């Protein structure tokens, strides 16, 4: 029998200012239980990401690994006050307080140098849902089944960036590719010309360029294909006079599908490069 899903409603994060996003969640669990889930590497791996090192004290070191295994995040704990506060490098800050017989969690994120990314914001949203399910005693497989919120919340965070930071301007420009191909299509060039003009008009803006796949290939090959797609896009922009020093480049391979992949139209949309001005 499928487990009952305790996630009753969508609780979006909100921008506090241009550089700060805040999520607030209330869990019917004691503060000590939530603190343990935030600071025990064995539990962090279940709801957040693998943690190979966490010295839970001010000045202590931490090492986190992307769930996909393609990125590593390490630094120092900026502040730590068990069981109420832990701050990872001043960028990711968890604060706990007792509330209505349980615990209120406030997660504060600071803007990254490459701007706000709807993928990452939707990811943190999902991780907080994972935390709730973990605290309720669900195992990893059930958590992955019940917390299917990434795709629905992705456009919500795209809209919040557009509304709060970009003065209504487009937040993401997308170009799409044929299967197992990194060649720019003719339809991509007007999109890239529009982005180039935006960067010329706004010299303070930089650009995050991320490649994604939904192709019939291995996990490793999907990252190489995503990198080739990003290279094709960045070279086109450079040929149009945009300095490569304004780019942040990334590749996510066969991950982060923004629409379902159960039909060719969805797969074609997911075979993309996203260009995000660093609002």
Element layout with pairings:
Elements: E1 14-17, E2 20-27, H1 31-39, H2 41-47, E3 51-54, E4 61-65, E5 72-81, E6 85-88, E7 92-99, E8 102-110, H3 118-135, H4 140-146, H5 150-164, E9 173-176, H6 188-201, E10 207-212, H7 219-239, E11 247-251, H8 264-270, E12 272-277
Parallel strand pairs: 10-11
Antiparallel strand pairs: 1-2, 2-8, 3-4, 4-5, 5-6, 6-7, 7-8, 9-12, 10-12
Helix pairs in contact: 1-2, 3-5
Give a structural overview.
The protein has 2 domains: 14-163, 2-Layer Sandwich (Alpha-D-Glucose-1,6-Bisphosphate, Chain A, domain 4); 172-277, 60s Ribosomal Protein L30, Chain: A, CATH 3.30.1330.60. Helices cover 35% and strands 26% of the residues. The protein has 8 helices and 12 strands. The relative contact order is 0.13. The protein has 279 residues and is of the alpha+beta class. Strands 1-2-8-7-6-5-4-3 form an 8-stranded antiparallel beta sheet.
Strands, count: 12
- The CATH superfamily of the largest domain turns out to be START domain
Helix % is: 25-40%
SS field, number of helical segments: 8
């Amino acid at each position: 029998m499928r487990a009952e899903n305790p996630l009753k409603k969508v609780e979006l994060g909100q921008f506090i200012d241009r550089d700060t996003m805040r999520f607030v969640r209330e869990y019917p669990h004691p503060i000590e239980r939530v603190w343990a889930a935030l600071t025990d590497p064995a539990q962090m791996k279940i709801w957040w990401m693998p943690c190979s090192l966490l010295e839970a004290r001010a000045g202590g070191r931490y090492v986190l690994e992307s769930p996909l295994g393609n990125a590593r995040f390490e630094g120092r704990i900026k502040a730590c006050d068990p069981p109420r506060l832990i701050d990872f490098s001043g960028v990711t800050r968890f604060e706990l307080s007792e509330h209505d017989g349980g615990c209120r969690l406030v997660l504060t994120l600071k803007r990254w140098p490459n701007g706000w990314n709807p993928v990452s914001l939707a990811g943190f949203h999902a991780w907080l849902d994972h935390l709730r399910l973990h605290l309720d005693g669900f195992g990893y497989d059930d958590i992955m089944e019940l917390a299917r919120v990434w795709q629905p919340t992705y456009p919500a965070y795209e809209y919040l960036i557009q509304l709060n930071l970009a003065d209504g301007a487009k937040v993401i420009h997308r170009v799409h590719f044929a299967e197992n191909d990194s060649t720019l299509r003719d339809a991509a060039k007007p999109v890239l010309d529009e982005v180039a003009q935006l960067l010329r008009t706004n010299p303070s803006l930089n650009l995050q360029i991320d490649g994604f796949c939904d192709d019939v290939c291995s996990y490793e090959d999907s990252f190489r294909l995503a990198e080739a797609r990003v290279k094709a896009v960045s070279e086109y922009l450079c040929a149009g006079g945009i300095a490569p020093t304004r780019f942040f480049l990334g590749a996510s391979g066969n991950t982060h599908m923004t629409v379902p992949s159960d039909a060719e139209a969805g797969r074609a949309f997911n075979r993309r490069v996203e260009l995000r001005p660093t609002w």
